[in-house]
Design a protein that fits this description.
- By secondary structure, this protein is mainly α.
- It has one domain.
- It is about 45% helix and about 10% strand.
- It has a two-stranded antiparallel ribbon. Strands 3-4 form a two-stranded parallel sheet.
- Helix 1 packs antiparallel against helix 5.
- The two termini are about 35 Å apart.
């Protein structure tokens, strides 16, 4: 209980400070998105939070709504233009999530919030990633980000749940800055985004 309170205090203070310090960048990015990608500036989506409870994540929009003649959205790599790629390259699209941190839906550090559709696909062990609030960054992000296989990402998430400490959070935050500058693992190789998680093998799901 005390550890959870300390982590929450760390999130509120750190998230609030980051919002103030980064506010000029946030305003500049919002203006860029509005001018080059269009409205709405923000992308909102329901994601699973702690214990799988849904919340609305807030990010800067990086893709257009361009559609084929039949009305179907074009593939991600065709809707993600140069502006969107640059925003993702520098993780600037994630800055609005600081609001999610301050309001308590997210933490500065923790397993990334994925898609609601993945919830029934996790093994019992993988589902433990939801025992803590999702984070802006985490073990998977400093260990390879989207270059990692799904199973490895989940292993790192669960390891974090079992080994959390303030010092570990500080280490992950510092290492995240380095990862942002290198730009490694922003997208899965050969694609604009990470491929969808379709579940682990039957043996893994049964604990075999």
């Amino acid at each position: 209980m005390i550890q959870r309170a300390v982590k929450r205090l760390f999130d509120v203070v750190g998230g609030s400070l980051a919002l103030v310090v980064l506010s000029p960048i946030i305003v500049a990015v919002a203006a860029t998105v509005r001018a080059r990608i269009g409205s709405p500036v923000l992308f909102r989506q329901i994601r699973p939070g702690r214990n799988g409870e849904p919340f609305q994540i807030i990010k800067f929009r990086t893709m257009t709504d361009e559609r084929a003649p039949d009305g179907v959205l074009l593939p991600d790599d065709e809707r993600l233009g140069d502006t969107g790629r640059r925003l993702r390259r520098w993780s600037l699209d994630e800055l609005p999530e600081l609001v999610n941190v301050v309001t308590g839906d997210m933490s500065l550090v923790g397993p990334r919030p994925l898609l609601m559709r993945y919830l029934p696909l996790y093994t019992t062990d993988q589902a433990r990633r939801h025992e803590v609030r999702p984070g802006l960054t985490g073990m998977a992000q400093i260990s390879g980000r989207n270059d990692l296989a799904w199973e490895r990402r989940f292993e790192l998430d669960v390891w974090y749940v079992d080994n959390w400490s303030v010092w570990l959070d500080l280490k992950i935050l510092v290492m995240t800055v380095g990862r942002v500058f290198t730009g490694r693992g922003v997208s899965e190789q050969g694609g604009a985004t990470m491929s969808l998680f379709e579940g682990s093998s039957r043996d893994e799901r049964n604990g075999g």
